[in-house]
Amino acid sequence: MDFLANYDQGALLPLLVSCAALAFLFVISTRVKPGSPPSPLRLPIIGHIHHMSKRPHRALQKLAQKYGPLMLVKVGPVPFYIVSSAKLAREISKSEDTSIPARPRLKAANVLFPGHRDLIFSPYGHFWRHARKICVNELLSLKRVLSFHHIREQEVAKMAEVLRCNKPSSPVNLGSMFVKLADTIVRKAVLGEKYGGDECSKLVGELARNAADLVSGPCLGDYFPMLSWFDTLTGHTAKAKRTSQGWNKFLDQVIDEHQARPGHAVARLDDAKDFVDILLQLQKEDTVGLELTRENIKSILVDMFVGSIDTSAAIMEWIMAELAKHPTIMKKVQEEIRRVVGDKKKIDEQDFQHMEYYQCVIKESLRLHGPSTMARQTSSATTLGGFDIPGDTTVFINLWAIQRDPMLWEKPLEFKPERFLNTSHGFKGQDDKYFPFGMGKRICPGSQFALSEVEYAIANLLCWFDWKLPEGVKLEDLDMRDTFALVTRKESPLQLVPSLHKAV
């Protein structure tokens, strides 16, 4: 009290007014509207950014444990509704035809896919329905995926040969090896054998990484529209334009070369057709209910790279990381694979139907390390879980949290492939609690393409090679931290020591 009595009253009044104004702003900014879901305390201007980390899927899971399976989080002035329960995720999938049909509109996606004339970011409607039909029935059907078996065999054989020539007791970087494998397989399937060489790898790899980073990384203008100019200063806008121009130039050349072939797509045998052949043939036949322009074709082709390389590579790396972390499980799955393969010199893709435990290992790895989130955009005001959700608002489904929900999974943080034995859990998004590739109409259409590659590559690594950690590295030292992106990548590349299996 003596302090207040002796303090300069003229200086004290502005201070008290400022404190009162800040308190008023804090109360107003943290007030939750009636009918809205629970929301953590937030700060003026920045919202809930202070609750986040470089792994927002983990931060959001922690908040959900306190505030419930549906909560409101604001990044700056932009609201996001976070779903962390399988039941609410199912409710969303049932609303895809009406109120929650599309993906959020991002600045980077606007540049990469002008007019959103691609599959990933186009709004729900005539174009999206027919573009998805083309992908599901023509590009990524089971028949088409099986037709690329020779590409998988060639590239996995090359990878195995590199491992055979590896210096004894020397670790290999499996992270970079899997990225190269996934990149090459996708390039050959999408663009053709001609584009499978190393001379094309650097260009396409850089364009694909940039595109994936742009649509999954932070863009200030998406959260603070008034600060969109800052993205120009940081180079984010220029990077998006440069990446878009790079894709356009490269794919224009690819399409021109395909069209320059005598009779081009139509004349080729069906099993020899790449995605460009198929799209050009559909364009010529004009029977798909959609005008396939060159720009549409290029956007769909970019989708194939953005959505597949990182996904396949990350899944393979996580499977090997979990097996390295659990050598008893690795030994068990190796014994099954080697028993099924027997005396054969090559694994046949038909063998996988007899590898039950191996399938469980893949499913468990995807449960723990699949895509982290799914995003949807409301087209109109709706309700979810009894709460009001405004129109034109983003809803995030935290798949990472759902696949670790102790109400759904016994000991959810443990790697236990046995939990999938004698169950019907699959990859088609129709399960009540297991949907690693999403669900509903927006489920990943390329899941079969990715799984075929993963199954074949990992089975070969486990069949023909034995694996151990580098010298001096203990099981408890193996870094299992992840990063947040379109998929949860392993933060530090996995390095293991291969040795040729004695029976080979």
UniProtKB/TrEMBL annotation:
From the UniProt annotation, give the residues forming the signal peptide. none
List membrane-spanning regions. Answer: 12-32
What residues does heme bind to?
C444
- Keyword Heme present in the record's keywords: the answer is yes
Q: Which UniProt keywords apply?
A: Heme, Iron, Membrane, Metal-binding, Monooxygenase, Oxidoreductase, Transmembrane, Transmembrane helix
Q: Is the Acyltransferase keyword given for this protein? A: no
A Pfam family hit: p450
Listed GO MF terms: heme binding; iron ion binding; monooxygenase activity; oxidoreductase activity, acting on paired donors, with incorporation or reduction of molecular oxygen
| Essential cofactor(s) | heme
Protein family: Belongs to the cytochrome P450 family.
Q: What is the name attached to this protein's record?
A: Cytochrome P450
